[in-house]
Each structure stands twice: as structure tokens, then as C-alpha cells.
Specification:
The chain is mainly beta and 287 residues long. It has 2 helices and 23 strands. It is globular. The model has no long low-confidence stretch (mean pLDDT 97).
Length: 287
């Protein structure tokens, strides 16, 4: 399998263009931060629980057969155990790579009836990693659109998600968020409760901070997009925590159709939806 290796002052990254242009490895100051299989082929066998991958043209779950949206039928089919269509279409398919390092793929025209192009450019600058994502509607009518990334950060890791409102359950999400409280109040850095799968909104800047106290490493995540949501998933059977910046809330297609907050965006023909995620790293003294 083709691997693309990037290196900077403090950061090494390994990208797999053939498997959704995903980050297989992210190594900072000599420490691996992503859940990484020993065999890169495992990303194909189990695409949802390793590394960091792009979600497009939607994030999280939508109905496997959503019916008519406008004049087009949306029926991408199930790809997850709960019967939903999860994390879009490009997370494991081959992407192309241009001479300038931009990775891109074309999708849709099937169960997702609109044709689209998604691209990613990965930049290492001093002690930061920047992911620039773009989703372009290549169809002749408006397309629902969403973008996100899905990194699995290795435990032990502490997390802050500085959102004051939350959708408490991604699998059966309510129409509107509620004020954070109890285990869903993650505005201070600390251990994340096990078995959460929720989405935060009403975020302050920066929306996310991560710390690995055992190795004295900290990261601040900054996100630039028209709208910002952050998902956290903490399955008890995994040695990692997912912290996922994205442009919409779970069940984004239902939200768009029903006029609920946090829906997918309407993207006009030829228009682009952008998402930039930057992780800035620094060392700190271990106590």
C-alpha cells in the first residue's frame, strides 16, 4: 500500500492515499498520538476505528434510506452495525494525489445522488498540523453537504470540549441540544467519561484542548468552518478517544429537511464547503 510520509520540526505523519487519504500515524516529539494498527491493511478491514479519516459528504449518521430530498432519492445503504449510513463515503476509498500534495476524490452519483469532489491538504508548520478540507458540489442542483475529520487519540488522554450545549446521544439524537451538565460538561481539561457518544455545540475558542500528562504533551485544536460541532466518542472497549470536529450535528440530513438546528448545509452547484483543523502542540512539565 502506498504511504506518504511528512515530517517537520517536531511532527511526523504517515498518510494512506489508498484508504481515504487518512492519517495512519501522527507522531509528535517522538510520541505516537493516534490509534494505529501494526498492519496498514487493517484500515481496510476495519475502517472506522483507526487513525484519522475524512468524513464527507456527511458526518456521523444519516438514515440508510432517507427517501426524497428535493427531487432526488437518498439511499446510500447501511454500512454500520446499527443499520445507519455513517461517516460519509470517502473514508476508505482511494484518493488521487496531485504534485503539490493535495489529495482528492470524486464521489456520489449513486445512493448519494449528487456528484461531489472532496480534497484535503495536509500542512506541517513548526509544531502544528493543519488539515484543509474542501467539498465541492459537482452536480447541477443544490446538494446537502457536511465535512469533518475523525481522529482516534490514544489513551491515556485528557480532553476539554468547550461547548455550552450538547446533543447527548448521537445514535438517537434529539432535535435540539441541551445545556451541558454532569458528565457532559467537558469545559475543563480532564478524563472523559467512558461510553459517551455525543455532540457539542455553542463552542468557545479554542473549542478543544488535549493533554497527554504521561508524556508531557499538550495540543490545542482550532477549527475554521461556517458552523462548528465537536463529537466525542469514548467506547469502553477501545484504547482511544475520538474527538471529531465537523460542520453539522448528527442526523444532519433529517435536520436539514425538518428545519432542526445543526443540519447539513445546502451547497449550490459549483460551490465549496470548507473546514480547516489545526492542532498546535507544545511540551509541558510533568507533575
Amino acid at each position: 500500500m502506498e504511504t506518504v510520509r511528512l515530517s517537520g520540526e517536531a511532527i511526523e505523519a504517515v498518510v494512506l492515499p489508498e484508504v481515504g487519504a487518512r492519517l495512519h500515524r501522527l507522531r509528535v516529539f517522538g510520541h505516537d498520538l493516534l490509534r494505529m494498527p501494526s498492519d496498514v491493511e487493517e484500515h481496510l478491514r476495519d475502517p472506522f476505528f483507526w487513525g484519522s479519516f475524512v468524513m464527507a459528504p456527511w458526518c456521523n449518521r444519516i438514515a440508510a434510506d432517507a427517501g426524497l430530498v428535493g427531487s432526488r432519492r437518498v439511499a446510500p445503504g447501511p454500512n454500520f452495525a446499527d443499520g445507519s449510513a455513517i461517516h460519509g463515503q470517502v473514508y476508505a476509498r482511494p484518493w488521487e494525489r496531485d504534485a503539490d500534495g493535495t489529495l482528492w476524490a470524486v464521489g456520489g452519483g449513486d445512493g448519494w445522488p449528487w456528484v461531489y469532489e472532496v480534497s484535503q491538504r495536509i500542512e506541517l508548520r513548526d509544531r502544528s498540523l493543519r488539515l484543509r478540507l474542501s467539498l465541492v458540489n459537482r452536480s447541477t442542483d443544490a446538494m446537502p453537504a457536511g465535512l469533518g475529520i475523525h481522529p482516534w487519540f490514544r489513551r491515556p488522554v485528557q480532553v476539554a470540549i468547550r461547548g455550552s450545549a450538547v446533543y447527548e446521544a448521537n445514535a438517537a439524537t434529539d432535535p435540539r441540544p441541551v445545556a451541558v451538565d454532569g458528565q457532559f460538561d467537558l469545559r475543563e481539561v480532564g478524563e472523559v467519561p467512558t461510553d459517551l457518544d455525543a455532540t457539542w455545540t455553542d463552542l468557545t475558542e479554542p473549542p478543544v484542548e488535549l493533554r497527554w500528562p504521561a508524556v508531557g504533551l499538550r495540543a490545542v485544536m482550532r477549527v475554521t468552518a461556517p458552523t462548528i460541532h465537536v463529537v466525542a466518542a469514548t467506547p469502553g472497549n477501545l484504547d482511544a478517544v475520538a474527538v471529531e470536529p465537523q460542520t453539522h450535528a448528527p442526523q444532519g440530513l433529517r435536520r436539514l429537511v425538518n428545519g432542526e438546528p445543526g443540519g447539513l448545509a445546502w451547497l449550490e452547484p459549483g460551490a465549496a464547503l470548507g473546514l480547516t483543523v489545526e492542532l498546535a502542540f507544545e511540551r509541558f512539565r510533568r507533575s
